[in-house]
Amino acid sequence: IYDLKGLIDIKEYVEWVDKEIYRNRIVGGIHFYIEDEMICCDKNYNDDNGHGTACADVITRVYKNARFFVIKILNSEAETNYPLLEMAMEYCISLEYRLINLSLAMLQEDSEKKLREICQCLLNRGKVIVASVYNGEKKSFPALFSTVIGVRGNRFELHREYWFDNNKEIQCIGDLTPIFTRWDREKFYLFGGNSKACAYIAGYIIKTCADENIEINFNNACCILKKYAVRTEWKEIEINCSKEPHIYENCLFKDEINKKVKELLYRITGNKEVLNIGIYTSLFDENVLNRDTCKKLIKLIEETFNIVISENLIDYDSIGTLSGMTNMIERLI
């Protein structure tokens, strides 16, 4: 979002705030929650699960001038319900901001009538809702509504690739490849799936509208996405939602580097089985790495190989497998 235009992130935001990066990006916020079967609100929109911060991080990578009005409706387990979602969306009607990033989804059809009406009202007010589909599903609410730009995830070679077909129920397919985003000073948040794809598309709409000096509205957003899409037609069978890491057949690595990385993993985990792990095996799927141990591993790699690993090099492919890590280290030595 830019100038007086705005992005409303219906997610949690920051308990940890990087003073250089986030403080000046938040223009306001509110927290809706249920207490004694009543919907209440306050100004405590701190992020206690990292998901909202990850959405903001993806958006600001796409458009560095993004600003956020935060509406928190998730609990510490990243869960919410229809009444809170409806309240949050209704609250958006009176706000001046034009784009709503909704990286969450609902599956219950019996409660969607009022939400559908609210989304229609938001569209009539000139607002753009970008909503993710529930992970593992082909459609969900409110992404399914014609008043919403629905986003599913796919694996692309380039993170910036996407498909768009305004005639489909879910119009947009974005890249779901996980990336590492900042959460606090000792943790990286591994963020992927449809939520990440949705945040990227939201950021792309804002950036392109700013670059081309056009107003943020639903029609312009759809025209932009169609204009720059890699593809505008596809079949369901072509969507690969696999979360397995990319395998680069031409990835070269040195046995010595590979051996040292395994030793570092053993130091962190204390599990001897990592010494025999395959070079393309997902370290996250095997629970060898998680967001709590990523920072430790990166520091150990830097110390061991006397290199500096900048944050822009840290992603799912570069650190998710032995092959990826070895390839990254080779380039930096």
Strand order of the largest sheet: 3-2-4-1-5-6-7-9-8
Tally of DSSP helical segments: 9
Given the helix and strand composition, which structural class is it? alpha/beta
Report the biggest beta sheet as strand number plus sense, adding barrel if it closes: 9 strands, mixed
Strand fraction equals 15-25%
Radius of gyration: 21 Å
Fraction of helical residues: 25-40%
Q: pLDDT below 50 for ≥5 consecutive residues: which ranges?
A: 1-6, 11-20, 242-253
> Roughly how many Å apart are the termini?
39 Å
Write down the overall mean pLDDT: 83
Q: Give the total of beta strands.
A: 11
Shape: globular
Order of helices and strands: EEEHEHEHEEEEEEHHHHHH
Structure description:
There is one protein chain. This protein has 333 residues and is an alpha/beta fold. 33% of the residues lie in helices and 17% in strands. The chain is built from nine helices and eleven strands. It has helices at 51-62, 82-93, 112-124, 193-211, 218-228, 255-269, 294-305, 316-319, 322-332, and strands at 7-9, 26-35, 38-42, 68-72, 99-102, 128-132, 149-154, 162-164, 172-175, 179-184, 187-191. The strands form two sheets. A nine-stranded mixed sheet has the order 3-2-4-1-5-6-7-9-8, sandwiched between helices. A hairpin with a 7-residue loop joins strand 8 and strand 9 (172-175). Helix 6 crosses helix 7 (294-305).
